[in-house]
Design goal:
By secondary structure, the protein is mostly helical. The protein has five helices and no strands.
C-alpha cells in the first residue's frame, strides 16, 4: 500500500491549527478530516478497500447528507482543485472520499471490495488523477 496523502492545516508552535481546518459552513465535518480527507485517487481507493465496511458505513452516513451542500459550495469557486484555499482543498478531498466510499454502500456489499475484481495492486493511476 502506498502512503496516504492527507491535507492537514499548518500548525502553530503550540500545535494548534494555524488556520481554519474547513470552510466555516462545514466545520462540523472537522472530526472526519484527519482520517478521511485523502488527496490522491489511489490512496482513496486503498483506504476504501482497507477499511472495514462498518466504518465505511459510519463515515458515509455522517458525510453523505452534506455532499450536496459541498457541491454547491464548490460551484462558487474556481474549477481547479489546485487553486483552492487549503481549507477548501481539505473539504474537496473529503467530498471525493465520500464518493469513493459510496460504491460498496450503495451496492449493498458486505465488504468494502469484492473478490472477483481486478486486484488493486495491479491498478495504475495516471495524472492528473486527484
Amino acid at each position: 500500500m502506498t502512503s496516504v496523502i492527507r491535507f492537514h492545516p499548518p500548525q502553530t508552535a503550540t500545535g494548534a491549527p494555524a488556520g481554519p481546518l474547513l470552510p466555516e459552513p462545514f466545520a462540523d465535518l472537522a472530526p472526519w478530516i484527519a482520517e478521511w480527507s485523502i488527496g490522491s485517487e489511489k490512496a482513496r481507493a486503498e483506504k476504501r478497500i482497507a477499511t472495514p465496511i462498518a466504518l465505511l458505513r459510519e463515515f458515509h452516513a455522517a458525510t453523505l447528507p452534506r455532499l450536496e451542500a459541498m457541491i454547491e459550495y464548490f460551484n462558487t469557486l474556481p474549477n481547479d482543485p489546485q487553486a483552492l484555499a487549503p481549507e477548501a482543498r481539505r473539504l474537496y478531498a473529503l467530498a471525493q472520499m465520500v464518493m469513493e466510499a459510496s460504491a460498496p454502500i450503495d451496492l449493498n456489499w458486505d465488504t468494502p471490495d469484492i473478490e472477483d475484481v481486478f486486484p488493486m495492486h495491479r491498478m495504475r493511476f495516471h495524472p492528473p488523477s486527484l
